[in-house]
Design a protein that fits this description.
Largest sheet: 2 strands, antiparallel
Helix content: 40-55%
Strand content: under 5%
Order of helices and strands: HHHHHEEHH
Low-confidence stretches: none
Mean pLDDT: 79
Number of strands: 2
Radius of gyration: 29 Å
Distance between the termini: 89 Å
Amino acid sequence: MKKMIRDLNASKREDTKGKIRQKANERYSNPEYKEKHRQSIKAFYATHEHHTKGKHKSAEQKLNMSKARKSWCKNNPDKLKEVVEKSRLTNIERETHKNERNANWHSGVSKVKMLRHTSKELKDKIKQRDGYRCQQCFRFETELDESLVVHHIDFDKLNDDENNLITLCNSCHSQLSFDRENWIDYFKNVMLQRGLD
């Protein structure tokens, strides 16, 4: 008896799922409904954080997503070409990543050729002075997977004055691309507190 009821409920569930699916397909085939739905979602996320923000996906989830993307790309080659071309053209047309519009733009300083490099002996001397330790996060070189770098406090690569050099790890050094003026002031204060300037 229980098995009959379970089978009956299962068939009802499948019927119900089929009806829901059919209604959803009918709704989404209507362009007006699609646009209205898209606008309501857009309005919702304008005032709410996305439900996946700050959440990490498991390896299994990532694998499933990758499989789904590959399957979609394989089944929709024309649509894929269209999406890729549209994205490429959009960036080229907008020129979003050129010169002043790029977040890492520093008045073309990166294009200036280096006349000389800080010598290895001077770098070793600065690292030794700083105790082979990053002066931002205070991790020792032995704790890191890579060697420490010597940073020019005023961002002038030609100014090799010892008071203008400080030891950093790669992670901390990579954070200095933005807001240079504040970093210059910060590291000058660090050097003053240590009595090196």
